[in-house]
Amino acid sequence: MSPMQLKKGEVIGLPIRRLGINGEGVGFYRKQVVFVDGAIPGEYVTTRITEVQKKYARGEILRLKKPSSHRVKPPCPIYQQCGGCQLQHIDYPMQLRLKRELVEEAFSRYAKQEMPTIRETIGMEEPWTYRNKAQLPVRRQAGGVVMGMYTPGSHHLVDMKGCLVQHPETDRILDIVRQVLQDLSIPLYNEKKHRGAVRHLVVRVGIATKEAQLVLISREDPLPKEDALVKELHRRLPGVSSFIVNHNPHRTSLVFGEKSRVLWGEEKITEGLGKLTFRLSAPAFFQLNPSQTVRLYDTVLNVAGLSGRETVVDAYCGAGTIGLWLAGHAARVIGMDIVPEAITDARENAAMNRIDHAEYVLGAAEELLPRWADQGFRPDVVVADPPRTGLGEDFMDALLRAEVPRFVYVSCNPSTLAKDCNRLARGGYAIRSVQPVDMFPQTSQVESVTLLERKNQ
């Protein structure tokens, strides 16, 4: 039978075979893939088809005919509407198992050269209140100030008052800022009209240092009623060490604009990670789960196989975190990034931690690596932690051209990880191991550390 026989509104019985990359259950009906939000592998559900496309269909659960023993009641009251988490209805041990299976599925589908060893997912002892940063849109709805997450696939903002995966201090700060904006009648951004001022609230807390930073993303700079706003924020939030305004005047989905200005306090806050200390500017990238970041970086260190004699290149170095974590076990660390502020932060962090054999260069790894190779320089180990889109062909070509002996790939997207590994395997790399790490419990995201080595080294 043709898989196109499925019709919108049709009700079917469906066995759920696996978890999808976005946390939905995946089943097959007459060879057509069907995604069902909230369904768990092993369940049999009665589902109504809500959408039919050429290659897939979507459905909603009408009845759980065979519920999973791993199904639990989500503790968050707005779990179904918010969209920030996707797996709260699954017990945590099963979440870890499913995340490993997501990585396995990606390699099975995209890595045609070889199937690597994929280890058990490294989880957390307490998989709640772990996020050190909140970044939420803020709007005025029904006469009040609303901040939260957009319902998936919509521009409907779900109001959040307390989030179970956020650190409690971020929730406390956000709630007070919301009230200040309300009390002072600060103009908030209207997306349709492209008017108003404050668009997003960004709060980052230093878990180890107890420092905190508030960033108001605004279409206007200076802010309306700026002096009164800063005075009231400082009065109600005396423990916050940094108030920043970031100017983003454009119609864009990007949160941060190009320019930031200190309203009060320090330009940067400090965070500790293991024995290291980092200074973080408002737009600087830093892992959102510090306690699990230690496990992630220890995994990188373990698979990198450093003896103290190696030169390590930290591509996409950001504030220098991974390279500095490895520096005590390497002879030389070279980091690179295309963001000038990141290089400034990385240099400052190296100096602050008294690491004098780490250097940082402004530029793209895909340009610098082959140039250095032409000059006779070849690093022993390259580490990369790219965005979700993966490495890019230029970077992989540079890696292959430089014939780097060991490459450690930190990935937050199993699909691009597997595709990139397949490309590198064709170019002469062997995929030695893949270690999933649960950086974001209760969500479908899974981080992985993959070791690749040049064959015949």
Automatic annotation (TrEMBL):
Domain of life per record: Bacteria
Family, similarity comment: Belongs to the class I-like SAM-binding methyltransferase superfamily. RNA M5U methyltransferase family.
SUPFAM superfamilies, per database record: Nucleic acid-binding proteins, S-adenosyl-L-methionine-dependent methyltransferases
Domain called TRAM: residue spans: 5-63
Source organism of this protein record: Salinithrix halophila
Gene: rlmD
Record has Transferase as a keyword: yes
InterPro entries tied to this protein: MeTrfase_TrmA_AS (IPR030390), NA-bd_OB-fold (IPR012340), SAM-dependent_MTases_sf (IPR029063), TRAM_dom (IPR002792), U5_MeTrfase_fam (IPR010280)
Gene Ontology molecular-function annotations: methyltransferase activity
Stated name of the protein: 23S rRNA (Uracil(1939)-C(5))-methyltransferase RlmD
Binding site for S-adenosyl-L-methionine: 287, 316, 337, 385
EC number(s) given by UniProt: 2.1.1.190
Active site: 412
Top-rank EC class of the record's enzyme: transferase
GO BP terms in the entry: methylation
Keywords for this protein: Methyltransferase, S-adenosyl-L-methionine, Transferase
Gene3D superfamilies in the cross-refs: 2.40.50.1070, Nucleic acid-binding proteins, Vaccinia Virus protein VP39
